[in-house]
Amino acid sequence: MELFRKDALVLKLKEITEKFPPWVSRLKWPGGILLATLVLAVIGYLIIIFGGSFVVDEKKLILDSKTTVETKDGQVIEEIYAKNRKAVPASKIPKHVKQSFVAIEDSRYYDHAGIDIQAIGRAVYRDIAAMKKVEGGSTITQQLAKNLFLTNDKTWMRKTKEMMAAIYLERHYSKDELLGKYLNQIYFGDGVYGIEAASRYYFNQDVSDLSVAQGALLAGLPKAPNSYSPFDHPGKAKERRDLVLQRMEDLGMIDINEMLKMQGSTLAVRKKQTQSDETWSNSYVDAVIKEAADKYQITRDELKRGGYRIIVEMDPAIQKVAYNKMKNGEYVPGSKGDVEGAFALVDTSNGALVAAVGGRDFKHGEINRTLRKHQPGSTIKPLAVYGPALMENAFVPYSLLVDEPKTYGSYQPENYDHQYDGTVSLYEALVESKNAPAVWLLNEIGIDTSKKYLKELDLPTEDKGLSIALGGLSNGYSPVQMAQAYSSIANQGKMQESYTIQRIMDRNGKIIHRHTSSEKQVFSTEVAWDLTEMLKTTVEDGTAVSGAYAKALAGKTGTQQHPTVKGKNKDVWFTGYTPEYACALWMGYDQSGKEYYLNGGSEYPTRLMKDILTDVDRVAGLSDAFSVPKGLKPLPKPVQLPSNISVTSEVNFGGLSLIKGTLKWTPASDKRIIYRVYRVENGQDVKIGEVTGEGEFALNVFSVFQNRTYYVVPVDPLTGKEGEPSNQTTLQFKL
Predict the structure, then answer these.
(1) What's the rounded Cα separation, in Å, for the pair 609 and 459?
(2) Are residues 256 and 383 in the same domain?
């Protein structure tokens, strides 16, 4: 049945065609070929028109753009990028700059729809005439498409895709948008991408400020950036620039007088110093990058391409001072060459990290030691022991602490000088950095109490032993952490999180992140002031006396003994604050082990810190004194009781009592000292009186027939502690 139908159809067609005129039959096959050709042409056209959507990747139209790290007043500190490009809106690029690129790259840019048939024909003709490829026919749009979506393969398929993408782009974007994307994308040599970065690199100015001649110079570079470099080949660069100016004149973009004047001008390039030439800011920017990732979830790779503006709290003048001092300052001597160091400076009013130096000569990619943890030694004592003890109301600065060698289980702390006073005031124990009283006090207030305050200071620890009092921690803390914690004492007991980033803006200028400050009251205002007074004395007369600094400074030294090399140190610190800034400076080795030890102590970071602050004072003007909080008074300094008091006695005649006695001694310069007078009587000592700040005591009526023996004991009026008794003297009447 099916065969019957086919045969019938064939017969019917034959019957119809036999009725056609003879000439129609002769055109049957050519017509078919023509029809097929037309169909294929339409299909090809549709593929070219609509196939571009398969070539174009819209995500790649968003160009990688470098991130800038800037101060609050707009000074660019560093740039972060994989490609040195700063994308700018097309509207920011001057008209004459756009014209210069159009003139030299694609003079019919505003007349074609992505493909310039005339240019292609001219290029093919010249290639055939020269028997080699001498001219390209690609439009600016085609170049943009190739650079963004395709490879440089010289194949018909790649060229077809390029045309498809160019037509697609022209149908979906305006000419100005495409020209702007092209100018932001192209390579200008020396690792510079895009017109804005090129303008800054070659002329050290924004693209919006480029002159016609400067724009022409940049327009001449993309064809062969290395060959036309104005720094390496100024002669060729000038020839190329002048050619661009000639093309602009040919196209009526400038008149002949302008052209001649500009062709007669110099290149006027001015190379911008690259990041590799400067390292003073590297430590700080490294901390910024880490904060962006940890706090705002913006990775380093995203910063390299995202075009952000990060506004930071750095003070460049202070950062440079600290960098230079840390690079050239005196360091503690060590066993294995140069010892490393790290410095951090925090604004006491808001927690802002003002300066950070992560090593003697830190460069990107190295260990940022401002963020690396080390055992803090005795710098932890005000935070882990003395501050908490004062807060618990059982102790005051003049409370007496036990200063004796004591064993707590298997732990026996020792004073660094192996000298013990039996009892010592809390004030003196802090100033002299005594270990035995600190551990005794921690045992009294409890480890949990100490850890509670450390946690409030963002210094949590999993350690559970009394060695916390001396900074013997498993992990330790970084200089930034220590500066942040000490800033709470300077800020009347209020702790604020340290930070570098004030705000972050995206490539469109929209603020996407902003630092929000919050503070918590860790120590009371009174306790913070008491600590300040004690730490001031530590700098003036205690363990932090090394070096010289003329303004107000409170602080504490720290020395962590080496765990395996007896008599040597592993880490040394100075941590403290002025009224404006809290600071921390660590010295030590990056490596650990018995081969790496320090041959000196905390006097080295203390001196270097004071050197830094002296120079900071010159650029920032630091305060002469700490302000006493309202309602409080200055804390009296400790009393130093005299020893070896020599007392003499004498008999006097006259007055209402014809016979008197007098005890005399040389009083100490501190007029606060109380001198108690005791009489030895029947094997017992009887207090008969006292004087304050004087060296004489009058004895009234006594029997001339009985000798009496006396001695004097100095007393600390702040603690009530008695000092060493004087010699005994006997008052007797002689005829």
Answers:
(1) 23
(2) no
Bridge partner list, 587: 341, 572
Q: Which of 105, 170, 580, 603 is the catalytic position?
A: 105
Model confidence, pTM: 0.84
Can you give the pLDDT at residue 677?
96
Question: Domain residues for 654?
Answer: 648-731
Specify the CATH number for the domain of residue 536: 3.40.710.10
Residue 707: Cβ within 10 Å count: 11
Q: Is 378 a catalytic residue?
A: yes
* Residue whose structure tokens are 């993309």: 222
**Rounded mean pLDDT, 675-704:** 86
CA pair distance 372, 343, nearest whole angstrom: 11
Q: What's the pLDDT tens digit per position in 4-14?
A: 454 655 565 56
Q: Measured between alpha carbons, how far is 619 from 319 in angstroms, rounded to an integer? A: 11
| Catalytic choice (100, 199, 378, 478) | 378
Is residue 655 located within the same domain as residue 526? no
Q: How far is CA 587 from CA 282, 331, 335, 362, 608, in A?
A: 19, 7, 13, 14, 10
Ordered DSSP codes for 64-108: -B-EEEE-TTS-EEEEE-SSEE----GGGS-HHHHHHHHHHH-TT
Q: Is 148 left (phi over 0), alpha (psi -120 to 50) or beta?
A: alpha
CA distance 220 to 100: 9
CATH assignment at residue 102: 1.10.3810.10
Range from 89-98, 145-154, 269-278 that averages highest in pLDDT: 89-98
d(CA 688, CA 143): 106
| CB contact burial 278-298 (16+ within 10 A = b; e otherwise) | ebbbbbbbbbbbebbeeeeeb
pLDDT tens digits along 32-46? 666 666 666 566 556
573: which strand partners? 558, 586
396 pLDDT above the threshold of 70: yes
Torsion of CA 472, 476, 480, 485, to 10 degrees: -60
pLDDT of residue 130: 55
Does residue 17 share a domain with residue 90? no
Residues 605 and 539: their CA atoms lie apart, in Å, by 13
